[in-house]
Structure formats: C-alpha cells, structure tokens
Amino acid sequence: MRLLLIRIHSKIRWKDHRQLPLIGWVCILVLLLAPNPGAAVKPPIAVSEHELKAVYLERLTRFIEWPAGHEVSQPSKPFVIGVIGIDPFKGVLPSIFNNQRIKGKPVQVLRIRDPADRRAVTRTHLLFIGKLNNKDLQVLLDMAREESILTVSDTPGFGEFGVMVNFFVDDDRLRFEINPKPVHQAHLDISYVLLRSAQIVGGED
Asked: Residue 119 is part of a domain; what is its CATH number?
C-alpha cells in the first residue's frame, strides 16, 4: 500500500500495518480527536488506510449539524454509524468506537446487508456506503435525504452521483470531496471550515 498523507487539520504519515496495539489506537485518537490535533503528537504514526478513514469519520461529524429536534440531539440515543456495500474498514469500526463518543453520545456500528432495508437504514445517522450498483445507491441516497442521514463513501464517482462526503487519494494524499446539494436537501448544516478543506463537486443547491 502506498504511503499517504492526510492534511486536514493535521499531518499524519501512514502505511500498511498490522492491527495496532491499544497504545497505537490511543495515539491516533489523541491526534485526531484533540482540539488542536496538529500539536498533539509529533512523530508519524503507522496506520493503515482503512483505520485512518474509520477514525476520521468522527472528525467529519464535528463540522455537521443535524436539524433541530433530530434524534442526534437526544442524549439518551446512541449515534449510529451504518456500513453498507463492500466494507473498506475490515471490521475495525466497532473496536475504534467502542469507548469513543460522537456528538457526546455512545456510538453503535450497524452492518446493513440489504439496501432496501428501510428500517435498518433509517436507524443510522451516518451511513458509509461501500461500492454498490447505481440502482441500490440511488435507493439509499433517497432515504438519506428524507431522514437527514450523512452519507460518506470512498468510491470514485459517488460524490458526483450524490454521496455527501467522498474520500479519494490524490498525489499520495487522502482528501475528500463534498457535494453540497444533497447536504442541503437533507437539511444538514455543514461548516465553512469543512467546505474550505474539500473539493466541491456537483455544484451548489
């Protein structure tokens, strides 16, 4: 796997690596989740691509606001991350978020098998969409807009198709694109700070 560099509020050199021990996860979380992550840990940390993307999901939610009265604002309910399609995280999401919080809430990871399973999909607040055919993808995006679900992927072309946040690699750097139109249609508010760090696709609403 290539050496990649993420440059969104922090700089982390990383490479393919075996599953990190607990101390490794602690260092990563301190670096990415700290208020000033650039100053948290100076040495480079070896971490695989899927591990870094998994941890960075929490970072994205800091710059997204859900509508008033949405379940995300209810402290008694967990923040639910759904994963559907090909799972690029190799099953590490539950271990990463086991003792972490998003929006001050415990995190539940839900693996969804059927794109037509509306009950499961609409339980989620953030839906990571792996590689799927366009028909199934459209079904998911329609539900996401109706239920104010933040959609994230790392599949080429999905940002243009209507996924809100899409990771991609450019010049050995992990970056992301944002499609503002579905964000607005889902009544989510996205921070200018996040937009400024992204490549904008799909045009404005």
From this structure: 3.40.50.2300
